[in-house]
């Protein structure tokens, strides 16, 4: 799969994380610097991810319009499920794209 | 069905409709709901917004959100009306009471856990395995 997650524009520093963890030379030569990814929703103690909060959802939808996998974003399984549901609802009502271009 | 259900209904109105028409349409839909015995708890006119993709060759639309409490019958009627109205580009109904109850449950669980951690350090020593497991789940 050739999804390019570096193309997105977000303020969470996920891109840097991804390059470090998944770059071709990661782990060789200089030691891999890995910051532990944490679920933002757990930190903020979110119980319900609302499909109307587009700002939040957008940060988990890279430019292509796909849902950001949790191996990149570090979101926990529980919250990823809620997030996916919310994004799908937001798509239905044209808050978010199904696919960009 | 004795229990009340809570729904969020959102719909997109044609951008050609002016504010007055949006209000008129919203009111007429509200009347349908109350006529069917539904209870409108919230009305939010979210205003004009860019659509993420084209719907009926429109790139914009006025969003209106209703929160309805009822049995589900008024939703059926409401959706029927919206389907035939060509001013409404799209609508979506989400049942929210179950999700909210679930969120409430999470909140309770967290509160209980916090209370336990605050008061009973000893209980953590008695059964560290169980504690660890739950913490791992939360984190």
Report on this structure.
Chain A contains five helices and no strands. Chain A has about 100 residues and is mainly alpha-helical. By secondary structure, chain B is of the alpha+beta class. Chain B folds into two domains: about 5-95, Alpha-Beta Plaits (2-Layer Sandwich); about 105-139. Chain B contains five helices and four strands. The longest helix of chain B has 23 residues, at about 95-120. The radius of gyration of chain B is 22 Å and the shape is elongated. The interface of A and B includes residues 39, 76, 93 and 97 of A.
Sum this structure up briefly.
Chain A has about 100 residues and is mostly helical. Chain A contains five helices and no strands.
Q: Could you name the key traits of this structure?
A:
heterodimer, A: 101 residues, 38% helix, globular, B: 139 residues, alpha+beta, Alpha-Beta Plaits, four-stranded antiparallel beta sheet, 5 helices, 4 strands, elongated, disordered C terminus
SSE order and pairing:
The complex is a heterodimer of chains A (101) and B (139).
Chain A: H1 14-22, H2 40-43, H3 54-58, H4 70-73, H5 77-92
Chain B: E1 5-13, H1 19-35, E2 39-55, E3 58-70, H2 73-84, E4 88-95, H3 97-119, H4 121-126, H5 128-138
Strand residues, percent of chain A: under 5%
From the N-terminal CA to the C-terminal CA of chain A, the straight-line distance is 18 Å
SS-derived structural category of chain B: alpha+beta
Q: Shape of chain A from CA axes?
A: globular
What are the secondary-structure elements of chain B, in order, as H or E? Answer: EHEEHEHHH
Q: What is the radius of gyration of chain A computed over CA atoms, rounded to a whole number of angstroms? A: 14 Å
> Strand order across the biggest sheet of chain B?
2-3-1-4
In CATH terms, what is the fold-level topology of the largest domain in chain B? Alpha-Beta Plaits
What is the multimeric organization of the chains shown? heterodimer
Mean of pLDDT of chain A: 77
Number of separate structural domains of chain B = 2
Beta strand count of chain A: 0
The helix tally of chain A amounts to 5
Question: What is the H level of CATH, i.e. the homologous superfamily of the largest domain in chain B?
Answer: Ribosomal protein S6/Translation elongation factor EF1B
Uncertain residue segments of chain A:
1-11, 15-28
The CATH architecture category of the largest domain in chain B equals 2-Layer Sandwich
- What does the largest sheet of chain A look like? none
- Give the helix/strand class of chain A: mainly alpha
Q: DSSP helix count of chain B?
A: 5
| Pair with the biggest interface | A-B, 18 and 23 residues
